[in-house]
C-alpha cells in the first residue's frame, strides 16, 4: 500500500495547471485484440511513470482532474491485460491524475456489477480525494483519446458508440458500458442499486436515479466517444436477472434506501499491483 506520506510528497502543487486541451492527444486510435497480449511486466516497462497501485500524476503540470477508474471484475484476466495495455497510455495523454481500481467479486455466486461499483467508490475515497469516478466495463477500449475522462457538471455517459452495437446508441435511455460521475452526483443518487444480481437492468436503474434527481445526462459525440468491445460469452454466474423489470419499476421509491447507504460487503484483499489496485470483495449474495 502506498503510504499517505509518499502520496502527498509526490504531489507537486507548485506546478502550473495542465491545459484544458492536453497537447499530446492523438485522436482516432488503432485498437486490435488480434495482436499478442503483452505480459504485465512489458506493460509496466512501457508505462514507467505509473506507480504501484496503478496511479499516475502528470510530471509537468497539476492535473485538472483526480479520477478513480472503477472496474467491476471476475475472471476476465485477458480482458484486463488489454485494458491496461491500451488505457494507461490514453489516460496519461489525457493528463489525468488517476488510479485504476479492479473490484474483484469473490466466490462463484451471482455477479453484481452495480454493487461492485459502489464498493469501488466507497473504498477509493478512503485512499484519496477523488472528485471524478469512471465506472468502466473491463472489455471496452476507448478508440479516440479526445473523449477525456473528466467529469462535467452533469453525469456523462461515455459508452456512446460501441463496436458491439455497430457504433450506434442502442436506445436513448442507455447508460451502459462506461459512465462518469462526480462525487456529488454519485452521492446525490445514493450510488447504484445493490439489488441487481446477475445480468442486466442496473445501468437503466442508474439512468432512472439520475432523472429522478433532476440531473441530465451528457454525452460526447459518437465520433469520439467510441469503444471497441472484446468478444465474450455470457459468464457463468451472470445469467439474466429475471427480477430486473420488477426492480426497474420501483426505482424512484427504492433509491433512497437502496444504494451507498445500505451497502454491506467484506474486503478479502486490498493489494497494490504494479498497474492497478486490486480489491477482492465478498458481496454477501442474495442466496
Ligand atoms: C452490458 C453493459 C454493461 C452492463 C451489462 C448488464 C454495454 C457495453 N455494457 O454488458 O455495462 O450494464 O450489460 O449487467 O452495454 N464482468 C466480469 N466478470 C463476469 C461478468 C461481468 O468481470 O463474470 C464485468 C466486466 O467488467 C464486464 C461487465 O462486468 O465488462 C459487464 O458484464 P458483461 O460484459 O457480461 O455484460 P455486457 O457485455 O452485456
TrEMBL record:
Domain Galactosyltransferase C-terminal span(s) in chain numbering: 156-233
EC number: 2.4.1.-
Membrane topology reported for the UniProt record: Single-pass type II membrane protein
Main location: membrane
Subcellular location field: Membrane
Pathway where this protein functions: Protein modification; protein glycosylation
Transferase as UniProt keyword: yes
Keywords: Glycoprotein, Glycosyltransferase, Membrane, Signal-anchor, Transferase, Transmembrane, Transmembrane helix
Name of the protein in its database record: Beta-1,4-galactosyltransferase
Organism field: Clavelina lepadiformis (Light-bulb sea squirt)
Full-protein residues shown: 139 to 425 of 426
